[in-house]
Amino acid sequence: MQLLGATLLAVIPAALAVVYDDVSQLPSSIYDFVVIGGGTSGLVVANRLTEDANVTVLVLEAGVTNHGVLDSEIPLLAPALWGSQYDWNYTTTPQPGLDDREIPYFRGKLLGGSSSINLMVYTRGSDNDWDNYSAITGDSGWSWDSIQPWIRKNELFIPPTPSVFDPRYDPLVHHQNGLVDVSVTNYFWPSAPRVIKTTIEQPLQFPYRLDANDGNVLGVGWAQATIGNGTRSSAATAYLDGFTTRSNLHVMLHAQATKVSASSAQDGIPVFDTVEFATNATGPRYTVVATKEIILAAGTFNTAQLLLLSGIGDPQVLAPLNITSVVNLPDVGKGLSDHPLVPASWTVNSNRTFETFLGNSTNFAAALAQWEATRTGPFSFTLPDMYAWERIPLNDSIFQGASDPSSGPHSAHYEFLFASGFVGGAAPSGLNFFTIDVGVISPTARGTVSLRSSDPFDPPLINPNILGTDLDAQIMVKALKAARRFVENSPAWNGYIIAEFGAFANATTDAELLQYSRENAGTIFHAVGSCQMTASNSSSGCVDPDLKVKGTKGLRIIDGSVLPFVPSAHTQVPIYIIAVSFHIDNVDQPSISLQERGSSLIKNDWNLA
Ligand SMILES: Cc1cc2nc3c(=O)[nH]c(=O)nc-3n(C[C@H](O)[C@H](O)[C@H](O)COP(=O)(O)OP(=O)(O)OC[C@H]3O[C@@H](n4cnc5c(N)ncnc54)[C@H](O)[C@@H]3O)c2cc1C
Ligand SMILES: *[C@@H]1O[C@H](CO)[C@@H](O)[C@H](O)[C@H]1NC(C)=O
Ligand SMILES: *[C@@H]1O[C@H](CO)[C@@H](O)[C@H](O)[C@H]1NC(C)=O
Ligand SMILES: *[C@@H]1O[C@H](CO)[C@@H](O)[C@H](O)[C@H]1NC(C)=O
Ligand SMILES: *[C@@H]1O[C@H](CO)[C@@H](O)[C@H](O)[C@H]1NC(C)=O
Ligand SMILES: *[C@@H]1O[C@H](CO)[C@@H](O)[C@H](O)[C@H]1NC(C)=O
Ligand SMILES: *[C@@H]1O[C@H](CO)[C@@H](O)[C@H](O)[C@H]1NC(C)=O
Ligand SMILES: *[C@@H]1O[C@H](CO)[C@@H](O)[C@H](O)[C@H]1NC(C)=O
Ligand SMILES: *[C@@H]1O[C@H](CO)[C@@H](O)[C@H](O)[C@H]1NC(C)=O
Ligand SMILES: *[C@@H]1O[C@H](CO)[C@@H](O)[C@H](O)[C@H]1NC(C)=O
Ligand SMILES: *[C@@H]1O[C@H](CO)[C@@H](O)[C@H](O)[C@H]1NC(C)=O
Ligand SMILES: CC(=O)N[C@H]1CO[C@H](CO)[C@@H](O)[C@@H]1O
User: Residue 597 CA to chain centroid, in angstroms?
Assistant: First the structure.
């Protein structure tokens, strides 16, 4: 099967007032705040800071505009963006857990960043995840209870049209005052009622869960996604498009930051205030000045890369690259965690799967026309319409001698993403598929981000260490066996499933399933933790709980880098939560500590009104 992608819209909307295409258009080189990266977190931070009309913000984005990118708007076509001009096109280092294979690592290179190319699954993580973050940082502001205002501030839940499957979410844990659209699917593939039936037929092992976003993720349920009216909602559509009349917010496209530097010091601590950027490797280097703060929001890989390029890291690693050490911060780039993923596919007896629409140009055109006219139909939701979050009993032999690798009893060890078609590449034509994408959610392996060279246009060395420990690999094997039981042990699938497909069908013993995993696993692209937040008095990690880079002034990191470990979640919402909590003056929730921290950003540090 050849995956089709929609062609670009011919007409690109007129350039936004504040979004500049060429450096010569930039009206100033001095701003209060310079945000590096116009992605998931960067655009949220820029939006929140410019709520105060007196605060000027420049966003430097290496990529292009999200406008006119139809594959980014149409949920089911997201995979067409991967490996495209909107992708950084990274490749990992050889992965020992994957028989030394190098795998592609997608990252959005356009406004909205990875929120403009991801699969849009909306998950907040478990209460245990956030309570662990709070314990690790010694900051109650990161606890599950404390982050609730930021969930509310981010989410605009759009209730589904009524269906026979209702209720499909818990209205008590959803909100309609935020900016990012969130919904469940209104289009039902033939597999969906079978997944539901399986929860009734195998209730002990695979119970139904009404809502995985209530603090306890466990169970099988309907996937929520950052989609509204059948269309992707991204950091760009939610936090930039509606705010282009703010004259204090400027966005520079094609602007890749190459270095941050300090032009002074206070009490021996460098005060970072200068950002160097370029539009290509050979072009001139430009500089802008941040009179208050530089905010790094370039994502897990590029934020760590930029710190290292700027001499912030382990001096012994920087010296051989001839990079002068500015701040001794050995943990930059260390402790990365990510979710391994491997597909289990079956051929099915169905004339309505992804293949029906993506592999046949007549059907593709019909589905596209339906989406264009009404935003409904097969293209209107993301690939997984349902998911399952599961645990392995702690008395299982794989945990012998190891402590629970998850953050607690409300977190998962593995996940199933249910998809009504082949996922992850080209499938033979003429067949229809059902896939359970199986992910390890509590990885114990840790990876790294490091420099290939001192050239900022050289991609960083990315080692997510997929299936890098025996325990992670054993969890994957257990999860694949559970996926098999899900389908084999329920009459719900009779008459639908034809057979297991490909190498998965041949892998029956644990050893074969392990080999299948090593040969076929990749990632769900959830890498976080390259510049972790730790307690203020801790010398490990990179940032304090207020996300200021240790040993510096004027420099903060607000993106996926700071999460101490990958949560029991797809990562965009935890990152939104962190980003939305930083703002000038929040009058919503005066009693919580994050709010006080947000206020202090301006009131104490910057003495603004
Ligand atoms: C294919 C894919 C599928 C995913 N699916 C899901 C999902 O379904 N649900 C979910 O919750 N999460 C998903 N994720 C993960 C989630 O999207 C990311 O964790 C999250 O978006 C990262 O946010 P961020 O702000 O840290 O980085 P990003 O959103 O990646 O933003 C970084 C931005 O900085 C820019 N940039 C980088 N370097 C520089 C520089 N030097 N100068 C200037 N600009 C720079 C980039 O171009 C980008 O715009 C997926 C990710 C991918 C790649
Ligand atoms: C990624 O690779 C594709 C295919 O080679 C290419 O067309 C695209 O321009 C690349 N992306 C970037 C941002 O260079
Ligand atoms: C690099 O950018 C400069 C302008 O910043 C431009 O003049 C030059 O043509 C670009 N070079 C390449 C190879 O794209
Ligand atoms: C570092 O500088 C030295 C001396 O100028 C040079 O010999 C060496 O090649 C440089 N190393 C790198 C990695 O650029
Ligand atoms: C699938 O087959 C049914 C019954 O023959 C038919 O009504 C339906 O239109 C077909 N659907 C597609 C997408 O081809
Ligand atoms: C594409 O689907 C249509 C039905 O919508 C069918 O008539 C046609 O034969 C299919 N084309 C191919 C190449 O399978
Ligand atoms: C959804 O999109 C369709 C097609 O553009 C439009 O007609 C409709 O008004 C939209 N509905 C809402 C609620 O925005
Ligand atoms: C684990 O505990 C459960 C419940 O106590 C029990 O049913 C099961 O047999 C135990 N499994 C193992 C491997 O000991
Ligand atoms: C499965 O095993 C059979 C028999 O050994 C072999 O012929 C076939 O190629 C294998 N299929 C895959 C996809 O590995
Ligand atoms: C940091 O502070 C906490 C709480 O005050 C204390 O328990 C801990 O011992 C301190 N750690 C270090 C390394 O000083
Ligand atoms: C902006 O600054 C001016 C002059 O300092 C002050 O009068 C005004 O109140 C400030 N406005 C806001 C929204 O803080
Ligand atoms: C720092 C912290 O709170 N760690 C906890 C995270 O969750 C695990 C599993 O429940 C606990 O054992 C840790 O103590």
Answer: 24
Q: What is the CATH T-level fold of the domain 186-222+340-440+468-520, as seen in this structure? A: Glucose Oxidase; domain 3 (3.30.560)
Distances 351 to 360, 376, 431 between C-alpha atoms, Å: 12, 19, 9
Ligand 1 pocket residue status of 573, Cβ below 6 Å? yes
Return d(Cα 337, Cα 353) in angstroms, integer.
33
pLDDT for residue 426: 76
Instruction: Say which ligand is closest to the CA of 161.
Output: 7
Out of 2-6, 46-50, 63-67, 517-521, least confident range: 2-6
Residue 178, both tokens:
């935020």
Does the model's pTM come out above 0.85?
Answer: yes
Q: Taking the domains of the chain in order of start, what are their residue ranges?
A: 2-67+237-336+529-605, 186-222+340-440+468-520
Q: Encode pLDDT of 432-468 as tens digits.
A: 999 999 999 999 999 999 999 999 999 999 999 999 9
Dist. CA 407 → ligand 12 center (Å): 6
The whole-angstrom separation of Cα 233 and Cα 123 is 15
Alpha helices by DSSP H, 190-234: 191-201
**566 token code pair:** 């990958």
**Ligand 4 atom 6: the closest Cα is on which residue?**
322
pLDDT above 90: residue 596: no
Q: Which helix (H) or strand (E) holds 462?
A: strand 461-463
Which two three-digit tokens encode residue 71? 């594959």
pLDDT digits (tens, 9 = 90+) for 66-101: 999 999 999 999 999 999 999 999 999 999 999 999
Angle at which helix 144-154 crosses helix 572-580, to 10 degrees, equals 90
- Interior angle at CA 568, CA 562 and CA 571, nearest 5: 50
| Domain 2-67+237-336+529-605 shares a fold with domain 186-222+340-440+468-520 | no
pLDDT for position 585: 45
Return the CATH architecture of domain 2-67+237-336+529-605.
3-Layer(bba) Sandwich (3.50)
Please work out whether the CB of residue 349 comes within 6 Å of at least one atom of ligand 5. no
- Residue 429 is predicted with a pLDDT of 85
Q: Please answer whether residues 322 and 578 qualify as being in contact, where contact means their C-beta atoms are separated by less than 8 angstroms.
A: no
